[in-house]
Amino acid sequence: MDISESGPCVLCNKPSTAGCLDCNDLLYCSEACLLADKPHHALLCHSFSQNPPTSTTGNRHVRAFSFPADTTEPKLVWVPVSGFADPDTGISFQEADIVQFFPPTVVPQTLHAERNSVRHRESNSMLEIWHTAAQAGSANRCIESLAKGKEGDGLFYDWKGGVLVLAMTRPTGFMVDPGAYKNAQARDFRDAVDFLVDYGNTAHAQSVRETLNTLGASTSTAERSNRSYEPYGVTGMGSIVSEME
């Protein structure tokens, strides 16, 4: 790993001085941060080293993260993707084939996140989170296990059923560059874990509401809800802010 061309520490954002020698995919500023991140990183470190992006040919599959409901360990998985070009504009769009990761009786929903509000930084990629909301009855044991040991030792949101997280490039505009799927990296896994464990944190929702209130008292609750997490790069959180009104 070439530290001279490295980014910040995955945990605290300070300049990095060392990295994981097993997967060569994560950077840290100190041994303390490396050890603090180890319980989560160790879950997929070996999988990253054994499944490099060149494991599949072309761009027909991308690496992603599966958080199964019935086990305590996440998985690094390959998700099929297909693309097509709009005949009028020539703009390319992609679609991920996620059917195999969810029961046929449920229709998964999506969330998108571009910022890690736990680490107070932009996320490594735009994350696309597929989940079953309240349609699946069983609690997600995998995400529950990720929350153990954090302050409060629990989740803010009751995740049900399996969850699939894909990494994407950031779109510059739907009719210019809608973004594209890419192979998820270890840093994306850190961002995904932080998002899933912190999702529904009303302390963050309160902060967003106070920010939106400064835009003017005439802004309706519905309008504020629709824009609720724009400052954090997250969509799909409007209901949390609405409940606090």
From TrEMBL:
Keyword Zinc: yes
Pfam families to which the protein is assigned, alphabetical: Ecl1 (PF12855)
Signal peptide location: none
Keywords from the named record: Metal-binding, Zinc, Zinc-finger
Entry annotated with the keyword Zinc: yes
Domain MYND-type: 9-45
Single annotated GO MF: zinc ion binding
Official protein name in the record: MYND-type domain-containing protein
Organism: Immersiella caudata
